[in-house]
Amino acid sequence: MAILNVKLPDKQKKTLESISEDLQYPSKSEYVREALREKIEKDLRLSEKVQDRIDEARNSGERIDLEEAKEKVSG
What does the alpha-carbon distance between residue 39 and residue 42 come to, in Å, rounded to a whole number? Predict the structure, then answer.
């Protein structure tokens, strides 16, 4: 397993320690790994939706830029 060091603001570190303890995670690292997995999955789904929107526009002849595609799928 690779090691990644991350700097956090003091308040965020304290929150991480508190939540990971309250939820009985084996370690702060496990809490962060789970949060990161969930964030990556969410971003991948969003990325797929953006690509679908771009493909839809391309197939219909509609012009759309990346930011517009992101806005349409996220909000």
Answer: 5
pLDDT digits (tens, 9 = 90+) for 11-69: 999 999 999 999 999 999 999 999 999 999 998 888 888 888 888 888 888 777 777 77
Domain that holds residue 49: 28-74
Q: pTM (2 decimals)?
A: 0.68
46 is a domain residue: yes
Please report whether residue 35 resides in a domain.
yes
| Count of structural domains, the chain | 1
d(CA 10, CA 27): 18
Find out whether 73 and 49 touch, Cβ atoms under 8 Å. Answer: yes
* Cα–Cα dist 18/12, whole Å: 10
DSSP for residue 46: H
| Residue 73 to residue 52: CA distance in whole angstroms | 9
